[in-house]
């Protein structure tokens, strides 16, 4: 091997190493950009969903998700709505019929797991929200769920 081949080998290896390092950096940058794009898509989706929920009448908002949570004071409200005071002046609002239907299913099931299987799909989001936030609990003496009454 002569001197020119040795120099070529050194420089080609060096350029391959630099190129590999550059490709690695480029891949990291592209991965970060993909992550940022996913976060932005999530934020845009949640923002548009939030704006849709705040649009329309109270009835439309409740019908779209089974319940709605409002931050502002709603003033006088029909007795056809069920209102639960949450924290920081927020209120969960749903229909009285929905709560009566939940109570019916609560009285029919004797087991915690059985209830989630029997509940209609449109009641599951409300049920899970109430359960997750401690607004309902399973009374082991009565063997049924009970909605906490703040009034």
SSE topology:
Elements (H helix, E strand, L loop, with lengths): L2 H52 L3 H8 L2 E3 L10 E5 L5 E5 H13 L3 H7 L5 H9 L3 E4 L4 E4 L4
Antiparallel strand pairs: 1-3, 2-3, 4-5
Record keyword descriptors for this entry.
three-stranded antiparallel beta sheet, 5 helices, two-stranded antiparallel ribbon, 14% strand, 2 domains, alpha+beta
How many alpha or pi helices?
A: 5
Q: What structural category do the secondary elements indicate?
A: alpha+beta
Morphology call: elongated
Report the strand count. 5
Q: Give the overall pLDDT as a whole number.
A: 79
Helix content: 55-70%
**In sequence order, what are the helices and strands, one letter per element?**
HHEEEHHHEE
> What ranges have pLDDT less than 50 throughout 5 or more consecutive residues?
none
Strand residue percentage: 5-15%
Strands across the major sheet, in which order? 1-3-2
* Cα-based radius of gyration, to the nearest Å: 29 Å
Distance between the termini: 93 Å
């Amino acid at each position: 091997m002569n001197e020119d081949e040795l120099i070529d080998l050194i420089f080609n290896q060096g350029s391959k190493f630099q190129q590999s390092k550059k490709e690695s950096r480029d891949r990291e940058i592209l991965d970060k950009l993909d992550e940022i794009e996913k976060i932005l898509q999530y934020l845009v989706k949640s923002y548009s969903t939030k704006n849709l929920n705040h649009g329309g009448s109270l009835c439309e908002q409740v019908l779209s998700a089974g319940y709605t949570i409002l931050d502002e004071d709603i003033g006088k409200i029909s007795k056809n709505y069920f209102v639960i005071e949450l924290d920081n002046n927020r209120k969960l609002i749903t229909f009285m019929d929905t709560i009566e239907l939940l109570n019916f299913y609560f009285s029919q099931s004797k087991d915690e797991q059985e209830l989630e299987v029997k509940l209609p799909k449109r009641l599951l989001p409300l049920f899970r929200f109430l359960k997750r936030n401690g607004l309902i609990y399973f009374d082991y003496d009565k063997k049924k769920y009970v909605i906490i009454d703040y009034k």
